[in-house]
Design brief:
Layout: E1 8-11, E2 14-17, H1 23-28, E3 39-43, H2 49-60, H3 62-65, H4 73-76, E4 97-100, E5 117-122, H5 125-138, H6 148-157, H7 165-174, E6 180-185, H8 186-191, H9 193-204, H10 210-219, H11 222-227, H12 262-276, H13 282-285
Parallel strand pairs: 3-4, 3-5, 5-6
Antiparallel strand pairs: 1-2
Helix pairs in contact: 9-10
Length: 291
């Protein structure tokens, strides 16, 4: 199941996209200068990243809320390790917002001062798997395979970009005391978006008026994001949308049930059970009907 080095390389236990990063760049991030006012969004791929990027953009930028500024979320909350638009991070005005898929041990050392605010968004790994599989069909990635069974095994083995979902979540949770971190799940956001936005604002120390809060919640809904070119990646280089397909596909909870067979689910549960047994997220994913 190994991938060609043309597309991916493994460095310090993590698969990266060869086209956009180098081992030297990853090493340099340890010394990346952190400001106390910085905010970091941490996710594993397909866990609600773009959704949360948009929410942060709406919270921090009035021009994003009232649509007077045509700035994409990838520039509002850019990627730390994948600086796709060659932005000058050092001279960005505070507060700077960043997104990353990095594991806990590869983020800038300054994040461990417990003052910089970190938001970690997690999602049911079965939905992550299915979303990741469909994502690989519309975006040029080394993970693309037409066979879901093969992709499932690659996912469980951590042979996809960002490597193992299990290790990513486990690592960040086990080392939570090293950071000023707020954990949130995709499922909580789907159940009560307004409540999730309020909790994010409370963690960030941001006070919004009722009108502004209403605007954030309204514009952060899945349907409104699909219509907002600033809030999805459909116009970005490397996206190869087929007819009638959208970058933001469904945005639902429990869609894995429409894809995975009973045998595939059992295989997934077998691998998941041991590593997830003492994480606090599992009760949500085990009780989807209550969401």
């Amino acid at each position: 199941m190994e991938h060609s080095e043309k597309y991916m390389f493994k460095y310090k236990g993590i698969y990266f996209y060869t086209k956009y990063v180098t081992p030297e760049l990853i090493d340099s991030l340890e010394e990346f200068e952190i400001r106390v006012s910085d905010v970091f969004l941490i996710t594993y791929p397909k866990s609600g990243t773009v959704w949360t990027q948009n929410i942060l953009s709406l919270i921090f930028h009035e021009g994003h809320r009232d649509e007077t500024e045509d700035i994409h979320v990838i520039d509002r909350v850019p990627w730390l390790e994948y600086n796709l638009n060659k932005l000058d991070y050092a001279n960005r005005p505070s507060p700077r917002l960043f997104t990353t898929h990095l594991p806990y041990y590869l983020v800038p050392r300054g994040l461990k001062n417990k003052r910089v605010k970190v938001i970690y968004v997690a999602r049911n790994p079965k939905d992550v798997l299915v979303s990741y599989f469909h994502f690989s069909k519309i975006v040029i990635t080394p993970d693309n395979t037409p066979d879901f069974s093969i992709f499932l095994e690659r996912f469980l083995a951590g042979e996809v970009l960002s490597s193992s979902w299990l290790d990513h979540v486990r690592g960040w949770y086990d080392h939570r005391d090293d950071f000023n971190i707020f954990f949130l799940t995709y499922e909580e956001m789907k159940k009560d978006l307004r409540g999730a936005v309020l909790r994010i604002c409370d963690f960030l120390g941001k006070e919004l008026s009722e009108d502004d809060l209403d605007t954030v919640v309204k514009k952060a809904t899945f349907e409104n994001m699909k219509k907002d070119p600033r809030a999805n990646y459909e116009t970005r280089p490397g996206v190869r949308l087929e007819e009638k397909k959208c970058f933001l596909r469904k945005g639902t909870v429990g869609d894995w049930k429409n894809t995975m067979t009973v045998a595939q689910n059992e295989r997934f549960e077998e691998v998941l059970k041991e590593k997830m047994k003492d994480l606090p997220f599992s009760y949500i994913w085990d009780n989807e009907e209550a969401i």
